[in-house]
Amino acid sequence: MAIQRPKGTQDHLPDGSPKLSLDTRAVAFQHVQDVSRRVLERAGAQFLATPVFEEAELVKRGVGGSTDIVRKEMFTVYYFGDHGGFILRPEGTAGLVRAYLQNGLKQLPAPLKLWTHGPMFRAENVQKGRLRQFHQVDYEVLGSTDPLVDAEAIALMVDVVAALGLTGVRVKLGSIGDPADRETYNAYLRGLFGAHVDRLSDDSKERLERNPMRILDSKSAGDQALIAELGVKPMLDFLGDDARAHFEAVQTYLNSWDVAYDIDPSIVRGLDYYRRTAWELHHEGVGAKSALGGGGRYDGLAEQLGGPLVPGIGWAFGIERLLLAMEAEGLDVPGSGGPLLYVAALDVANVGHAATLAIAARRVARAEFAYRAVKPGTAFRDAERRGARLVALIGSDEVARDVVSVKDLATGVQMTVGTRDLPAYLAGHLEPSGSVAQAAPAQENA
Ligand code: AMP
Question: Where is the Aminoacyl-transfer RNA synthetases class-II family profile domain (predicted)?
Fold first, then answer.
């Protein structure tokens, strides 16, 4: 058997490939990127791309040394003579904030809205919707603590999924307070879980020392049973006045824009640099535990990376998860379509001439040609297989008269067009957007 792709990765395939699903269709990925671009750039976000590998230290500080991502799921990059200290990025925020600091983007007007998309890497246990290379769309806003920025970020995330046609999406909104609020909460959790250390998983025993809030995030069934049994109070009960006012302001904005959300006290982001607003986007078709995306405020991150204090907030969603949700809702994305024009020569001497015509036609529209001489029946069949709208056949007669005879496969109409008039004729078949126009419905005979 030929060499296979690594486990947990996917190929993004052209339309027409056998066994195609929405989350492996290249045009579907492009569609999500295009829709995200449209929604986010209309809101003033600018595109920024960062490398797929970064210093390990950036990922450790940016994602947190106590997270599963850093402890168990990092892909380390080695190359000859190097210190082995690079990591394939597991998420986009740390790299984006690094780029902001390193390139002096602080000088741009704040709040600065940035967005990006690209592959992320985590060595996870592979299952449906959980890959080792997956793709995210990220939106980040730097330089403001205003709750209006939080509400706008959440609304934009909802706008992107709505623009994709998804309806079964819910926002789960929470707040993790300010650092002092979290200290109070962690002290409460230490007291509570401290009396039951023997029942905690090994991971959670360690979390009890370092960061008890992360116990609430535990994937261990035993830990979750203990949490339920102890009736642990949520972080929301521990918000200080400032964080509570911020949380309420975010909700007031969302309410005024009719953005639906549920308050979810179980949302915890146990990392030190997270502040206040945190949320997740869920879809019934992808399963309760599998979020389409999530976001949060991270005012402490830039300092954590060795920079000045730069407040920030952002979100990411997984493109594969979005596509699975779209598939679950029976949504489809437009295919890439076929060429407007397919040119075929009827004899060997004119193959080059057919190619020249098609190449000239590309100034107007997508045009392809046959690489060998074919009979008219074969030309029509080949054109149909490629999804072409118009077929031009070139024989010696057409070359002598400097014309092409064109058949419109949608209407069956056949006509002769002067070579020089071909561009205008083709332009008549295009929408203003540049896509091929639909054929006008055939006239009913009276
Ligand atoms: P996170 O950075 O963990 O908050 O993830 C943000 C989003 O990225 C998630 O809600 C998923 O949609 C997506 N995502 C995260 N990990 C994976 C993965 N291993 N496979 C596919 N999508 C993922």
Answer: 32-334
